[in-house]
Amino acid sequence: MDRLIDVLRNKGYKITPQRRAVITALSECGQFPTAQQILEHVKQTNPDVSLDTIYRNLSLFVELGIVHEIQTCNQDGNRFEMVTTGHHHHVICLDCGKVQCLHFCPISSAEIEKVEENGFAIVSHSLEFYGYCQECRAAGQ
C-alpha cells in the first residue's frame, strides 16, 4: 500500500482520503475485486463516495501502472488487482467471471525479440485467456 502511495506522490498526485480508501479496499477486498465491491468497502468509512469516484481513481491507478484491470466480459464488471510483482497473465471464466493467475508466461522471449527486431521496443505485455472454469463446465452438462 505504501508503494502505491509513493508512486502517486512521486507523480505529483495528492493523497486524498478517497484515494487512500480505494487503495485500502484493493488490499483488503480479496483477490480481484470489482469496482462495486471496492465501493461497498470504501463506503464503510467514507459513506459519501460515489461509484464515479471509484472508477476515476481506478482509471488513474491503471494509467500509472500500479493497478491492473482485468477484462472479464461478465455482468459483474471488470476486476482489479494491485501490481505487486512482475507481469503475469490470467484465465477468466466467461460464465461466472472467476479469474485465476497464470504463474508462467506463455510468450517466449524469442517471440518478443522478433518484434523488437523490427524496431518496436516492448516495455510490457498482458495476456488473458477466456473460457469456462471446471465448475461452470460441469454445471452445463
From TrEMBL:
UniProt protein name: Zinc-specific metallo-regulatory protein
Organism expressing this protein natively: Sporomusa acidovorans (strain ATCC 49682 / DSM 3132 / Mol)
Encoding gene per record: zur
Protein's cellular compartments: Cytoplasm
The entry's keywords: Cytoplasm, DNA-binding, Repressor, Transcription, Transcription regulation, Zinc
Coiled coil segments of this chain: none
InterPro entries: FUR, Fur_C, WH-like_DNA-bd_sf, WH_DNA-bd_sf
Alphabetical list of SUPFAM superfamilies matching this protein: Winged helix' DNA-binding domain
Upper classification of the organism: Bacteria, Bacillati, Bacillota, Negativicutes, Selenomonadales
Lineage top rank: taxon: Bacteria
Family: Belongs to the Fur family.
